[in-house]
Amino acid sequence: MIRAALGRSTVERTPVWLFRQAGRHLPEYQEYKQKTGRSFLDMLSYPEDVAECTMQPVRRYDVDAAILFSDILVIAEAMNVKVTMPGGVGIQVPAPICGPADMKERLPAAEELNEQFVLERLGHVIESVKLIRTQMRKEDISIPLIGFSAAPWTLMYYMVGGSSKKNTHIGIEWLNEHPEASTKLMDMLTTVVIEYMSEQVKAGAHMLQLFEAMGMMIDEPNFNKFAMPALEKISKELKSRYPDVPLMVFARGASFANEQLSKLGYDVVTIDGSVDRSTARDVVGGRAGLQGNYDPRELIADHDGGRTKETVRKTTRELLEALGPQRLIANLGEGLGGKESTELVNEFVKAVHEESEKMIDSAE
């Protein structure tokens, strides 16, 4: 997995893991959640719950990485912006930041945003990373652990009142109406993201994934003006601290940014389902590897007339043939939503390994 990400040598088979591989599609997760009596967001405050949920897909599937079980908005919570997830309506921010004065009053001062801030406000996440590593050793599991964070624009988008289902205009309005405050907020969030991901590495994460999950909610000029400088600063700072820790980025819904992202020092650029596979390699050149972009709907048994192990293997082969088995981390173009069949997810993982190994062997 790390070799594929860094691209320093070839691999015998393409590695694979899945966005949201832990959580709602797993029956063992639903059972565990019911047993604890805690909500998803509440579970994130308990390192033992986080460790258990992180380990569940690793026990079930032959994936090549574990990923920290967490949420993209833990940084928002740490910065005094409450997040709720009532169910069925997505992420909610009941009291968003409503202007520069509100931002100044409610958020921590910029000079407070350092390593100590992360340890105080997000220490439970860092403890979770340590506990996961301990549990992996206990169970003799030697795959990498991926730490992650939301990117600054995604954090800002939710913190000022945007969501995936309504108020989708608010983020852009904020950028246009409050450019100075927006720049300051993005700078503050960038600092926290860097320190947060850095602490995850110190705690034992082997790889890092940055999610610009709301890339589709910002136009290209504003992305280049506000989001891209933050992504560049994060890459440069983390790579200067940890040059051998693979750094992956996913600008979901903003594929126009992928070429530039490949020039910023990220080892892997993730492509979503909208990206044309035939040109994806040309966009990133030899500067970065690719990750993605299998359609998770192919893993829903009753999708579009029915999906089977055979259809999964066929579409997996198409993914590998289009993107090539080297310098690739097979993954999804969108996270698992909860309706996927565990049998078909397992077949996808198996098919990536088996079909890529055949392709690599035949090319030698």
Automatic annotation (TrEMBL):
One of its GO terms (biological process) is heme biosynthetic process. SUPFAM superfamilies: UROD/MetE-like (SSF51726). One of its GO terms (molecular function) is uroporphyrinogen decarboxylase activity. It is an enzyme of class 4 (lyase). One of its GO terms (cellular component) is cytosol. Residues 4-354 form the Uroporphyrinogen decarboxylase (URO-D) domain. Pathway: Porphyrin-containing compound metabolism; protoporphyrin-IX biosynthesis; coproporphyrinogen-III from 5-aminolevulinate: step 4/4. Its EC number is 4.1.1.37. The keyword Lyase applies. Keywords: Cytoplasm, Decarboxylase, Lyase, Porphyrin biosynthesis. InterPro entries: UROD/MetE-like_sf, Uroporphyrinogen_deCO2ase_HemE, Uroporphyrinogen_deCOase. It comes from the Eukaryota. NCBIfam families: hemE. PANTHER family: METHYLTETRAHYDROFOLATE:HOMOCYSTEINE METHYLTRANSFERASE RELATED, UROPORPHYRINOGEN DECARBOXYLASE. Belongs to the uroporphyrinogen decarboxylase family. This is uroporphyrinogen decarboxylase. It comes from Thalassiosira pseudonana (Marine diatom).
